[in-house]
Design brief:
Elements lengths: L11 E5 L3 H5 L3 E4 L3 E2 H11 L8 E5 L2 E2 L9 E2 L4 E6 L12
Parallel strand pairs: 1-7
Antiparallel strand pairs: 1-2, 3-6, 4-5, 4-7
């Protein structure tokens, strides 16, 4: 079995769906691991004026953040975070100041 040795595997892969692609300026972003989900969302909001964390559902490796630890979910290298726009109510269940 061949081991993957790509710099992309040493990062958190953030995938924006729907109109969030426009808010973030692209479909996929890469960030270093070792941060919490809430910190990642705050960083995205600081870097991208059109991004509003309160209007986003997040999934980490296919599991909704509300089923994990919410904004306290630890993100490590190789994780994939999907950002899904909220259309009708709902939300991440995470308050991001």
């Amino acid at each position: 079995m061949r081991r993957r040795c790509s710099w992309r595997w040493a990062m958190i892969r953030v995938r924006a769906l729907g109109f969030l692609r426009k808010a973030l300026g692209r479909e996929e972003l890469l960030y270093p691991g070792g941060i919490k989900l809430g910190e990642l969302l705050r960083r995205l909001a600081q870097e991208h004026e059109a991004f509003r964390p309160e209007a986003v559902l997040a999934a980490v490796n296919g599991v909704g953040a509300n089923a994990l630890a919410g904004e306290e979910t630890e993100l490590k290298d190789g994780d994939e975070v999907a950002l899904i726009p909220v259309i009708h109510g709902g939300g991440l269940g995470v308050r991001v100041p």
